[in-house]
Specification:
36% helix, binds S-adenosylmethionine, 25% strand, alpha/beta, Rossmann fold
């Protein structure tokens, strides 16, 4: 068993032992995902106050809410997903935290449908490996980026012990190349994650 799977098993068994099955399931929904240091990941991708940022596959807001805090009142986070229920949950969490700078966007499988074409950055966290049409999605997403801006992909890295369900750097590089992007590493030293920047050629 790899390190990520072992860690997940230990957490699940500990929660079941301590809380019983039902409460453990509820608790797991609120566990931080793996060992991602969100603040240093935001540093690595160059997220600054005042930015207009898109997030694709935002789910219920694991990375969205910290980003909204970082970009502040002068910035905006457009949180996309194809799952309306996830976005409804994200909206409730943003409201609870008093974050008025988050807008949700229901997208299509191959197009996030962001409402702006001048975004400073588009971020995809723990989600790109779930995208059914990654090349088409990358091609269609270029139009939402201002010149020089990038798509940042943050995900568990099979080369650092994640299950093969997650995508390797070389697999993502293949999709990026076909879609017309140049790929670079944004950060090293994360114990479980890869952080890649994809910039349109
Ligand atoms: C594993 S969740 C990750 C959610 C969140 N980013 C996190 O880190 O907790 C993956 C999300 O990607 C979404 N998703 C899958 N395919 C998508 C696509 N083509 N476009 C946008 N979102 C997609 C799913 O609905 C799901 O909410």
């Amino acid at each position: 068993m790899n390190r990520a799977a072992h860690h997940r098993l230990v957490v699940v068994l500990s929660l079941v032992a301590a809380l019983g099955t039902g409460a453990a399931v509820l608790a797991l929904r609120h566990l931080p995902q793996w060992h991602l240091d969100i603040e240093s990941a935001m540093d690595a991708i160059g997220l600054d106050p005042g930015m207009a940022v898109g997030e694709a596959g935002a789910g219920d807001g694991y990375f969205t809410l910290p980003m909204a805090k970082r970009v502040g009142k002068a910035g905006t986070v457009y949180a996309n997903d194809i799952n309306r229920r996830a976005l409804a949950s994200l909206e409730a969490r943003a409201k609870r935290d008093g974050l008025a700078n988050v807008q949700t966007v229901v997208g299509e499988v191959d197009d996030p449908l962001f409402p702006r074409q001048d975004l400073d950055l588009i971020v995809v966290v723990h989600a790109f490996h779930d995208f059914d049409r990654p090349v088409e999605w990358l091609v269609n997403t270029k139009k939402y980026l201002r010149p020089g801006a990038a798509v940042a992909i943050i995900d568990l890295d099979p080369e650092k012990g994640a299950e093969p369900h997650f995508w390797s750097r070389s697999r993502i590089a293949g999709y990026a190349g076909k879609a017309g992007y140049v790929l670079s590493n944004a950060a090293d030293g994360n114990p479980e994650h890869l952080i890649l920047l994809l910039t349109p050629k």
